[in-house]
């Protein structure tokens, strides 16, 4: 069959276009490969990827070798598919194998469906220092429920920042010693090493500007919820005007969420905001609440001077200091924060039995006569509950609290904010008087219970927000977490971190 001139033209033109576009794409890739390292030598290139990277699979799709259940070695970390690069926003499967040991003390037991072992594990960026916690879960196997068996844990970890990530961590406790429910003394923390091969590296790379990139941060919408996932970035790595950022911590890092932008509210701007939007706020909480309110009531001046920030008062213990002009031991303290706004602070030591007066006394018959209906009620619990209560007592008290909220805040116009307990790791309480039962996993499970309980009870009828201050500390570099734990037995956030915790709240209330 013959082809006339017009038919040849119809074929030649599209083919020429395709060939041109292919050559241009190849040219762009070559140019990017030649120039990317010039701009940032730490960013892995597509050219660094294996020629045929294996297709990524999640943990449940990757079989566990039978030999792992009978291995006799030190606990070790495994990344089943690690010899590849992933794109920002993709995940990698990571596992930890803990060979069995004879149980030496049967007086310890984990919570229902919680692990025998407590393992602190992070993926750490080798160039950025970004710290991503690994939320290990028990694999579905009966061995994980027996104390003396081999235990295997796994997690699919999403990595959003361009870097080379390596696992770092250690065993905190075996045989459920992380859970001192029925013990009068806290258990010493004696870290046990994890075997981590130097070959376990996860490359996160992209030839395009990721939506999670710092260059895109100022294009993100403002944060409206106080639990947005984020990471700590060195102030020196910020590629834009730093006036757009909240304050930095004592390690010169700033907290940047991935999917939204924190507006850096001044305390004066917050006072103006509440005068317009929230004339009355009820705030129930402990000594960490007191530290947050000291910042708010002083318009940020509390512990803000360079010669103050490293004092014990600003780093940890402010118990003897007044809250404004008020005695912080009073069960109820009104705090004026603007010309037309007020916070009513109710001092609670969690929902524990050591509250004096009992927390339930707050909801007396004349409670409605003491104060008007607030637009927001903040409940800051868990810290004292982890330290001094059992989980069963805590669950019982939470249910009573939820009933009281239903009774005394019946209108859906009162929004609820639940502040998590402070993150805890890297130490144990050695105070011979207080004997706090702090541990990382106890705090985690108490936080999970109370946030889920509030959302389940009220989530369909009114706005319920989770003020996740625990995430802020959990994602700090290990050195920062260790310093905090070793310098403050009550587990108070130091003043610089209080400023950042408050920014999460301000953006929730004002945006």
**Average pLDDT rating:** 88
Strand composition percent: 15-25%
Number of helices: 11
Q: Distance between the terminal alpha carbons, to the nearest Å?
A: 70 Å
User: Biggest sheet, open or closed, and with what strands and sense?
Assistant: 6 strands, mixed
Q: State the total count of DSSP E strands.
A: 18
Give the uncertain stretches in residue-range form.
1-54
Gyration radius over CA: 26 Å
- Which overall shape is indicated by the principal axes computed on the Cα atoms? globular
Into which percent range does the helicity of residues fall?
25-40%
Order of helices and strands: HEEEEEEEEEEEEHEHHEEHEHHEHEHHH
Helix and strand content put the structural class at alpha/beta
What does this structure look like?
There is one protein chain. The protein has 511 residues and is of the alpha/beta class. It contains eleven helices and 18 strands. It has helices at 5-39, 267-277, 287-297, 312-315, 367-370, 383-388, 391-408, 440-458, 469-474, 478-487, 495-510, and strands spanning 76-78, 85-86, 90-98, 118-125, 131-133, 137-138, 151-159, 163-173, 192-193, 202-204, 230-234, 253-257, 280-285, 332-338, 341-347, 376-380, 415-419, 464-467. Strands 2, 4, 5, 8, 9 and 10 form a six-stranded mixed β-sheet that branches. The N and C termini lie far apart (70 Å). 38% of the residues are buried.
């Amino acid at each position: 069959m013959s082809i006339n001139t017009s038919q040849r033209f119809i074929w030649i033109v599209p083919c020429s276009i395709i060939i041109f576009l292919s050559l241009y794409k190849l040219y762009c890739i070559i140019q990017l490969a030649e120039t990317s390292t010039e701009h940032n030598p730490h960013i892995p290139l597509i050219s660094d990827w294996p020629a045929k990277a294996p297709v990524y699979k999640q943990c449940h799709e990757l079989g566990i070798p039978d030999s792992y259940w009978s291995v006799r070695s030190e606990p070790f970390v495994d990344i089943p598919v690690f010899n590849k690069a992933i794109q920002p926003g993709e995940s990698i499967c990571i596992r930890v194998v803990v060979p069995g040991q004879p149980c030496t003390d049967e007086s310890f037991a984990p919570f229902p469906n919680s692990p025998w072992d407590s393992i602190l594990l992070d993926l750490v960026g080798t160039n950025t220092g970004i710290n991503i916690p690994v939320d290990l879960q028990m694999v579905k196997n009966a061995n994980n429920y027996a104390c003396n068996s081999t235990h295997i844990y796994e997690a699919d970890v999403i990595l959003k920042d361009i870097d080379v990530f390596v696992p770092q961590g250690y065993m905190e406790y075996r045989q459920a010693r992380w859970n001192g429910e029925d013990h009068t003394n806290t258990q010493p923390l004696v870290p046990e090493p994890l075997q981590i091969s130097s070959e376990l590296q996860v490359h996160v790379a992209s030839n395009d500007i990721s939506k999670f990139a710092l260059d895109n941060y100022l294009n993100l919408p403002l944060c409206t919820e106080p639990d947005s996932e984020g990471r700590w970035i060195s102030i020196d790595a910020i590629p834009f005007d730093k006036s757009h950022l909240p304050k930095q911590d004592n390690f010169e890092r700033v907290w940047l969420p991935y999917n939204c932008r924190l507006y850096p509210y001044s305390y004066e701007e917050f006072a103006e905001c509440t005068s317009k939007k929230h004339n009355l706020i009820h705030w129930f909480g402990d000594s960490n609440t007191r530290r947050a309110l000291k910042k708010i009531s002083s318009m940020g001046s509390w512990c803000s001077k360079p010669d103050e920030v490293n004092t014990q008062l600003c780093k940890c213990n402010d118990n003897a200091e007044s809250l404004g002009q008020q005695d912080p031991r009073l069960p109820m303290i009104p705090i004026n924060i603007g010309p037309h706004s007020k916070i009513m602070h109710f001092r609670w030591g969690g929902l524990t039995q050591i509250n004096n007066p009992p927390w339930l006394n707050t909801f007396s018959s004349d409670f409605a006569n003491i104060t008007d209906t607030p637009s927001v009620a903040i409940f800051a619990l868990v810290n004292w509950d982890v330290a001094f209560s059992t989980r069963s007592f805590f669950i019982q008290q939470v249910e009573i609290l939820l009933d009281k909220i239903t009774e005394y805040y019946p209108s859906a116009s009162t929004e609820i904010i639940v502040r998590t307990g402070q993150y805890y790791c890297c130490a144990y309480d050695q105070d011979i008087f207080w004997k706090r039962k702090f541990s990382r996993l106890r705090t985690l499970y108490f936080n999970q219970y109370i946030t889920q309980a509030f959302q389940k009870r009220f989530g369909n009828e009114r706005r319920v927000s989770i003020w996740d201050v625990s995430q802020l500390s959990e994602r700090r570099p290990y050195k920062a977490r260790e310093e905090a734990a070793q310098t403050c037995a009550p587990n108070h956030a130091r003043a610089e971190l209080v400023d950042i915790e408050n920014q999460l709240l301000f953006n929730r209330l004002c945006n």
